[in-house]
Every structure is written in structure tokens, then in C-alpha cells.
Amino acid sequence: MDSHKWKDEGPSVKKKRDEFMTEIRQHKRVEEFMRSRQILKPDDPNTDGKITSVDNPEMAHLREFVNENLKKTFSNEDFSWLAENIKSEDIFKQHLGVIGLRKILARKTNTPIQDVIDINLVPRLLYFMERDDQPHLQLEAAWALTNVCSGSTFQTKSIIDKGGIKSFVRLLKNRPLNISEQAIWALGNISAEGSSQRDVILEEGALDSVVEILLANIDNKKLWSHGRWALSNMCRGRPAPRFEYVFKSFPIFIDALQTEENPEVLGDCIWALTYFSEAKERIPFIIEAGTIPKLVNHLRKPQLSILIPALRVIGNILLGSQEQCEYVLENGILPYYDELIKHPNKAIQREICWSISNLVTSQKVIEELIQFPDIIKTLMKILESEAIDLRQEVLWTFRNIFKNGSINAIDQVVNGDFFEIIKSILQEGHHDHKCIALEAIYYLLETTRRFGRIGTVYDVLESVGIVKVLEDLQGNPSMNIYAKAVTIIENFYNTEEESIF
Question: Which of 51, 74, 347, 361 sits in a 20 to 30 Å window from 413, CA-based?
């Protein structure tokens, strides 16, 4: 094992990391949908005040009729007659029906989403979205269907299966801004349903259209927050979207690091950057954009929705080259790690431990790390704990320190308690933990032998009983554990043999 870089965490660890990210985003999605129901405020001239979107002078009566109904309240008891109005061929009744339906679908609880699907109103609303000659009807229909998308995956699928994605993408082009904004919300919601829906949206060119709308309305902060949220959903998920579909959104997310005032939307943008940073060939692109110092600055924020993805992006950068790791170090990351590794939230600790394990790639970096003794002390406490996923990353850290560090670094991090913990892991620990612990012992012996200090380590390993444990592990049913134990014995306690490490 020549390097820890891009180490194989195993499918279970990778799956847990991805599931955790998904869990965080799904938890927020409920709030996102509630926000989507309220994107236009009561004082907006396009909702409950006087509308300006019915421009035909001959439609003055309709304009007055619509404005009066925008002021009314509706309840679920009105659903049946509202549906009949929607099915009518009368333009006045159509407006009344869709306005009332939109209002009851915007309620926080007990919304009749399934009723809309059951009586087949979705195709009718999609038809209204095609009515370029009736922009307010178009807006209300799009808004109502956006709220249907706030239901279950099955309910959202009822819109997708009837061509809803193409209908919403169409509204992004050459339509009044309030209609395009509603389409952005809907497509953001649908993108969150999964990679297959996301890919259809991207293939239709929606992301490029959203970026164009934002750049054409540079001073509209509300629109930019909504757009960034939608773009972040279009960039997330596994498998990751094709880079040529999403690269135009990258500057939007970078700009958000400095200008976005809504912490939840800022968090969405940083989550999107985590996907950009997962491919190592994109790391130079991310660094050149000045991302790292901006992310480090956000580590002062208290919100987990910002801290967790910011740490993830930085951790992904640390999987790059030695020069890229040192660049992160130069931007002052260690003082933040020193503080955040003691954070009460386990997810924060997980990100820190994972990042540190990828950071310790050279003597230079390791010498910087040991200037923060509290980090080492906290890592030792985690190693003693029952937190299995955290323990694995800490084991990687010590393994890499022993492999890449100096004798001074080893003196700083190793003590009697460390060997007792390692012995316990070798005897009773998880299979993967045993493998990493064996590698740590191998590199500890190899490095101390190189510096003429192996005798001391021999004595400690013998006195705490680790040598006996190594001998016992030669009978372990796992070929991986067996081979590593044999290599240590043969390289350091018997004859010189070729290392498997």
C-alpha cells in the first residue's frame, strides 16, 4: 500500500457517507417544499394584489375578475367545484378554478394533492401551462403543479409521466419573469427526486436556461436565491451528472460563497460544490476559482448546513496532490480543525477525522499538525470510543503519520495508552480496523528502524502483549489479516522478507 490517497474505504463506508449526505438533504427538502409554496408573497403584484400579466385591452373584465378572486380564501371543501371550473371551457371559470386550487394546495397541511391526481387534473393544468396567450392562467397552473411536486415521489411522478418536465423547461424561455421563476422552483423540486429525473431536466437544457435567467437579472436577490437552490439540486445525486451539463453553474455557486445571505441556500450551493470536488481532475479548477479561502472563512458559521458541506469540499481537495494539500494548509485550516474536532455533533467530527487522515501525507504537513496537541489528544479519545466510523478514520491518521512522518512526530503521538488501544482493536475490533491497525504497526516499525529507534518499539510491543497477538493473528481466518500479521513477524522479528504493504 504505497499511499493513502484515494484509499479504498470499502463499499460500506462509502455508502454510509453517501446516505448521511442524502439524509441531511432529505431533511431539508421538507422545508424547501414549504418555501416553494410561498415563493410569491401576498403583496406581490402578480398574486393577491392587482395583476399586470393580462395585457390584452379586450380582457379588462377578465383582469378585474381575476383580481377579485385573488383576494378570496378557499378551503378543501371547495375542491370539487373548483375542479369543475378547471375542466370548463370558460376562461373565467378556468381562472377561478386554478386560483382556488393553487391556494388550497399551498396550505401547510392536509393538501388535496392525491385528489388532483385521482380526478386527472394534471393534464388539464399542463395544458394551461401551454397557454401563452393567458400568462396569469399559465402562472397559476405552474404554481399549482409545483405544489403537487411537494408531495410524495409517486405524486411527483404523475407529473413527470405526463410530460411535465418539458412543459416546465419551456417556461424558462421567453416568458415573464414570475412564470420563469415558478418553473425554476418546480424543476428544482423534481430534480431532488433522483438522478434519473435530474438527468432528463439537464438533457432538456434547463440548467443553462436557469443560469441565463440569473445573469439577466443580476440584482434580483430573491430570484438568485431560488435559482441557486434549484441549480444545486440539478448538480447533486449519484451517479453524478455529466460535467458538460452542469459546469455553467459552477460560477454561480462560487459567487454564492461571497454574496448569498440566506444560510440554507448557501448550504445548498456548498453541497453542490461537494459534487464538483469529488473528481480529482476538477480540483485545480476549484482551487483556481479561489474556493478554499472562502470555504475556510465559512467554518466560522454555526449552521451545520454550512459547516458539513464546507468540510466535505475541503476534505475532497485534500484527496488531491501534495501541493494541493499544502495549499489548504496555507489557508489556515488547522486552527479550525483544532476547534471543530471537539464539536458535539458527530457528523462534524466525522468530516474532521476523515480530512485529517487525508491531510497527513508528508513530513511538512505532519510537523504542522503536531503543533496542535489538542487535535492529537482528541484523536486518541476517539480511538478509545465506540464510534466505529470515527475510529476507522483515526486509525488511518495514525497509520499515515507513522508512514510519512518523522521520528519527532512519532514521539509526539505515541504513548503507552496508544498501544493498549491498538492491542484491544487487534483482539476484538472490526475486521477493517484490524487491517489498518496492522498497517500502522508495520509503518511504525519501519520508520523507527530507519531512524535507529526500533529497539524501543520492540520493547513496548512485547511488554503490552502485541507481539503475542500478532502471533495469534497468523491463525486468523481472514487472509488479509493473516498476511499482514505474517509480514510484520517475518520483516521485523524473523528474517527479512518482501513487504506486502
Answer: 347
Handedness of CA 267, 269, 270, 274 (dihedral sign): positive
Buried (b) or exposed (e) across 236-275, using 16+ Cβ within 10 A? bbeeebeeebbeebbebbbebbeebebebbbbbbbbbbbb
| Under 8 Å between Cβ of 96 and 137 | no
**Is residue 122 within 8 Å of residue 162, measured between CB atoms?**
yes
pTM of the model: 0.80
Residue type, 390: L
Residue 362, judged by CB atoms within 10 A of its CB (0-12, 13-18, 19+), counts as middle
d(CA 415, CA 266): 43
Cα(150)–Cα(159) distance, integer angstroms: 11
- Burial class, 26, CB count within 10 angstroms (exposed 0-12 / middle 13-18 / buried 19+): exposed
Distance CA 200, CA 160 (A): 10
Burial 43-55 (b: 16+ CB within 10 A, else e): eeebbbeebebbe
CA 339 to CA 272: how far, in whole Å?
A: 25
If DSSP codes are grouped into helix, strand and coil, which group holds residue 55? coil
Cell of 82: 373548483
Are residues 314 and 328 in contact, defined by beta-carbon separation less than 8 angstroms? yes
Q: What is the pLDDT of residues 277-322, one digit of tens each?
A: 988 888 999 999 999 999 999 999 999 999 999 999 999 999 999 9
| Listed residue (40, 118, 131) closest to 80, CA to CA | 118
When computed from its CA atoms, the radius of gyration of the chain, rounded to whole angstroms, is: 29
Set of cell numbers at residue 430: 472490526
Q: Which residue has the cell 462560487?
A: 254
Rounded Cα distance, 220 and 224, in Å = 6
Chain center to CA of 203: 22
pLDDT tens by residue, 48-107: 434 444 455 557 888 889 998 899 999 999 999 999 999 999 999 999 999 999 999 998
3-state secondary structure of 268: helix
Cis peptide before 239 (omega within 30 of 0): yes
Cell 503507552, residue?
416
Query: How far apart are alpha carbons 243 and 372 in whole angstroms?
Result: 38
Closest CA to 416 of 384, 452, 374, 387: 384
H/E segment holding residue 301: none
| 285 half-sphere exposure, CB direction, 13 A CA radius | 14
